[in-house]
User: What shape does this take?
Amino acid sequence: MADSTLDTQENGLDAPPPTPIVEPPVFVWPPRPVAMFKFLFGNPGYFLPLNILYMGLAIISWFLLTPALSSMTTFQWEWIAIVYGRNLGLTFLIFGGLHLRFYTLNAQGTRFMLNRRAPTVGHRRFLFGNQVRENMFWTAGSGVIVWSAYEVVTLWAFANGYIPMLSWEAHPVYFVLLFCAVPMIRDAHFYFVHRLLHYRFLYRTVHQLHHKNVDIGPWSGMSMHPLEHVLYFSGVLLHWVLLSHPLHAIFHVQQTGLAPALGHVGYHKLLIKGDTEVRIGQRYFHYLHHRFFECNYGGDGTVPLDKWFGTWHDGTPESHEFMRARRKQAHGA
Ligand SMILES: [Zn+2]
Ligand SMILES: [Zn+2]
Assistant: This one.
């Protein structure tokens, strides 16, 4: 914990991420309507480029890669296998694709890299003596199963009318607004679950597994203890009590399953064709959580709960000193 964020930035990096990290102008007081509009509809912004991709993928998944709702009234292996197979396929495509590009093919070397070294550590503290293999094991062996189980039970409940179904024709505005709000709802839910996981007992027995990843890569994202997966994906239960459509539930649980790949990519910009730089979301925010632990519990800070609860690490040395002092005080050292 003695490192400052600056040594990370100096580790062969040609362009450190901009600091301080500032919260998006959505939940700010006094309101900043023009800045909020720019954030929501600009590029990069709330929708562009990433959330639009996740939204499009959810729509494709619902219309083309999900069995008919009428076939899901009973638990039959045929349709459960389609849901699980689709989720496993998307996981290998996205987590595997990102790992292949950034670490196997080393497509942009250390350009815009956040890590001090590649997250491919061979060490006996990891299962199979290898960081990537352990991360893949927890992702496929627990993460995708828990994700699919939540999805299967939710679709079954919709199919049987145990959950009331929102109609697009009757409430189109509410339909769209709820769909657009899902990433923010996820962000807020993640903050509280994650904060809970950092309480001493839960941290030692459950969450420590995820934090074996100090230098992070795509497969680190879903590398969690099964109990953490159960808590992490529980946000989809919102659609059991809030009037929703299966499309909302699929978007919610699918983004929860896939977003950690990019969330842990270990780079803050994508370099295309050698010279075009594309910012890939606020990657530095969660990276700092893996370096310094007791800060930045929210996903990407869109709902700035870290700011409101005093755990916002903005990447500056001043912020780092503040966090260290707070930690000393809390631990009486
Ligand atoms: Zn993480
Ligand atoms: Zn954590």
In short: The longest helix spans residues 131-159. Residues 5-331 form one domain. The radius of gyration is 20 Å. Strands lie at 269-272, 276-279.
